[in-house]
Description:
By secondary structure, this protein is of the alpha+beta class.
Amino acid sequence: MNLLFHQKELKGYMVNLDERPFRVVDEPLRWLCDDDPMDPNSFALQLVTQSGEKVSHSVRLLPGRTELYQSDETVFPGPPRWMEDTEIMPRYSIPKLVIDSLEGVEFLRKIGASLPPSMKRRVTDLDLFPHLKMWVEQGLTAAETEHLVVDVKALEAKGRREEKLIKAGWDLIKQEPVKGKALLRFAREKLYPIPEILLQMGLTYDEKLEAFKGRITKQFPEKFAEWIEAMPESVELDIEAKLKTILSDPVTAAIRFEVVNQEIDWFDLRVVIDVEGVNLSKSQIRQLVAARGGYVRMDDGSWMRLEIKLDPDQRDAVTRLGLDPFDLSGETHRMHAMQLADPKAAEVFDPKAWKRIKDRARDIQIDIKPDVPTELNAKLRPYQVEGFQFLAYLSTNGFGGILADDMGLGKTIQSITYILWLRKNAESDEKMKRLGPALVVCPKSVLDVWATEAGKFAPELKVKILRTRDDLDLREVREELDILVLNYAQLRVCGEELNKDPLANRNPR
């Protein structure tokens, strides 16, 4: 019934014996304790409305998370339940000897009843607060096991009362005597959440330890940190030093990418981690980095975690590069200068390395679209023009590359166009004044195709097909030829001799 009255959808559909809807109100009933005028040896416990009007008839208690009291026509919220019977009389007479005691005043406090006027001066209200002492205990169930142990007590600020939580509930340990007829009443509201809090960590009571315990697993530090973070402020904590390291701020580390090698526009990078303010071995740093921000158990039993200092812009830049800031494998990552030239990534590079990257990126020319040489005796298709310009772009920036068109789309004529462009540039570019011949290596079946197409589309180019080793004349290659064509077998046979030509090493293209 309690649940039904709490459902808004059923409001107006719950009716009494007269088939009239119950009126559900927000104003609660409460207990009022006063001297009983009919019996000087008793106190009267009277049920009253919020305005103080006495309830004149019995009501029905509807147990639930929020207690409800049902009369013939109205349903009220009300005080906590204190008897088994659900039919509640509006008035009870209780002997004074029962109320005039520590247990009696505590009973009145629990049910939210006011003190009788004759007792108010004699009762002092004191707060009890929970105190949790925590430590790590080894070898409770096996030599390798570890447990979190928690001793739970309820204390009063001035030490006038101390209780201990055991399996059966709160057990009185110490109670300071009071003078004369004075009574102490202890507010216990702060103690009520403690059993549920202990369950959240899976803690159970151990009779031998006389404390609560829970097994420490790999997930323990994260769970413990969350548990402590959610702990009510009213709970006083006493945590041993090593266990408390879980709550410490993470060790901060700066990340940088070290350039270990450079080849023209390519840079080989390696991740370097610089830990600040703590002396750690390389092995410990590697463990912390591998945990990726998670906790690591150190040799002394403490816990530690590492936080890589990267602001959102830097993290975004590193992510776009495809680099992993937690990679301490020692392996290098080959990246192009244009990939690395993101200004947001500047702070994660060594200053000297960053200057090299910037300088190389600045030297790279992006918009390279030369006209097709007029000496070419052919009209290129648009995609062939793009292919030629791609080769020119690679040459201008000193890049390697592959023209990977499908068979039959004219890679040969694009390459001939590129060679014509190189020869023309050599006339005006000091760096290319002594440009050597182009070396074309192709299958034996297309040797003559190269010679034929070069003669057809660029007759001014001097082409020679190398068919045997005896045909190789280095002077002729150096002084007369524009293109030397040979197959793969001849390259293996003549390669060493071709490398002896100093012009071979002066041709950067």
